[in-house]
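Appendix B.2, paired examples.
Example (i):
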Amino acid sequence: MREIIPAEIIESKILLLRGRKVILDRDLAALYGVQTKALNQAVKRKVKRFPQDFMFSLTKAEMRNWKSQFVTSKSRP
């Protein structure tokens, strides 16, 4: 039996990107206890089960910006 994940942990994984609340695939995979690759493969196999706007890929610029914000927030006391 799986444990219930506290709402605070889930909420801490939610980011605001492109004006939408999202959870990165790696964080969602961790919440489900699977590898990111396995999660992405499962979604691709059953893509018709998900809404069209369920997922999107970050651009290189968005990824750089996200990484720089992540590093900045980690370096603050």
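Example (ii):
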Amino acid sequence: MVAPDIHINTYLDKLLEGAKEHQINNHSKWVIFSDLHMGDGGTADDFKPNSDLFQSALRDYYLKHNFSLMLNGDVEGLERFSLEVILKNWKVVYKLFDSFAKKTQLVKTYGNQDLRLKFKQQTYYYEMSEAYKLCYDQNNIFIYHGHQASKKYQFQSDLGSFKLKYSAQTSGSNNYSVSHSNKKQYKIEKRAYQHAIKRGQISIIGHTHRPLFKSLYKIDRLRFKIDQLCRDYLISAPSNQESIAHSIKFYQTELEKSHQIQKLKNRNSFNYHHNLAIPCLFNSGTVIGKRGITCLEISDGKMRLIHWFDKNISKKYLQYTGYDPIPLCKTEFYRMVINEDALNYIFARIKLLR
């Protein structure tokens, strides 16, 4: 019997071959968001709490700075709400989408929750595809929602997938189990990681709702941050050392909390069984996070993992050095670079380590 992951690799290969291509260079600007889960604007709408933050980030930063916009699946929560209701209640958001489509570019992938758009007969104005491929200096950045790396979807045809989603909607069930299941998240990410290594490319997914940068989880990023701050402490003026020391203690506490969470989830492996993580898998996270929004930026020949937050909800990053959040033009919203690296360096590491 053939291992299921081999079937998934074959499916992802077909997805890659059929992906729509866009050429990019060091002057290109893209921002990638995933998992908006837009609903009816009511109390059951998961998008609503961060909707003002999301709109402000799009309008006052990304549109202003001429970014192209990629929405990587599960934009509309069609398993719980009709498209007509969503379009009606979030007209202001769709107007922003229109602005990107006119000024720069706007593209969308199909997620598991908005897969029905593929079969919808009514007009839907935005370019959509199962996957996209950004071609950078003879290297590929493969972008797809991520549900395709799940065993649940690997043998289903498009029609079968539609029937599955339609049945889920009419029965009142939903598909939040992946974002709340650590085991399912890890398996999906591992398959996406293995496929990216096989093809020697960067892969960007969403679906699991947790941000990844260079195949590393938060716990690994915290270790690097502490190491960086220790180095900064040695070369800083005495007047800054006290602040840096406080930041180190803060991130130590965050690291300990993350360790405790991982122990509760019985998860000991953080890099998909490689002794040295190959930096090929990225995840833009989600727009419906409890402490804000995460996304990925590609600009100036670099990849950046970004956290947007409202200081009235999450103030901790304003109290310590290390990340340097920047306020967004007379609002109480902040943009914070969690991690960044040059695309050339990332691709070089992939080629040398795979």
